[in-house]
Amino acid sequence: MNVRQRNKFVMITLVLFIGLLLGGCATYALKPTTQAGPGKAPAIAHSYSIERGRYGDALKFYIEADDPDNDMLRIATVVEQTGYGRYSTDWIYLKPMNTGHLSGYLKWNTYSPNTSSLAEWTWITVKVSIFDKTGRESNVVVFPFEFVSESIANPTPPAPFDKGDVPMLGNITVNLVEPTRIGGGYRWWD
């Protein structure tokens, strides 16, 4: 194989590779999303959480929701951290008794095996929504939260969560990282 034939072979291979790559991206971009059937999406009517606390504390995110179709399936929790970005969605599947109406809290132990500490004033945003069996999503409730070193008392949540028998709906399993320590980074203030 001479140089000219080899260059031609490389160019054809490259063009085919790029064509397959772009074709795959176009196919992915045009892929339809889940189509919801007739009916209504679930709706989160009430929500509550504290807005400040220490790293490692257990947080509670209270939600109350209804679904007229009685087919709520799972709760989606998305955590976004300033300086890091968005973590993978955490899914909590609902018990059969909670498919039409639920009132309870999601518990999140914020201590993570990925880091021993978080910087003071680290901000996160926790977004919670509910999906039904046909893929319809409820409204999204947003809980802003700031990590501080001071101890914050957990006040009694407001109605309808002020009853003593509010059930836990599930555990959030997102493991936070300290962005300044990713890759063994050294912080000058340590």
Briefly, what is this?
With 190 residues, the chain is of the alpha+beta class. It has one helix and ten strands, in the order H-E-E-E-E-E-E-E-E-E-E. The C terminus is likely disordered.
Features:
single chain; alpha+beta; 1 helix; 190 residues; Immunoglobulin-like; 15% helix; flat; 2 domains; six-stranded mixed beta sheet; 10 strands; disordered C terminus
General description of the model:
The protein has 190 residues and is an alpha+beta fold. It folds into two domains: 1-30; 43-178, Sandwich (Immunoglobulin-like), CATH 2.60.40.10. The chain has one helix at residues 3-30; strands spanning 43-48, 52-53, 58-66, 72-81, 85-86, 90-93, 101-109, 122-132, 141-147, 168-171. Strands 2, 4, 5, 6, 8 and 9 form a six-stranded mixed β-sheet that branches.
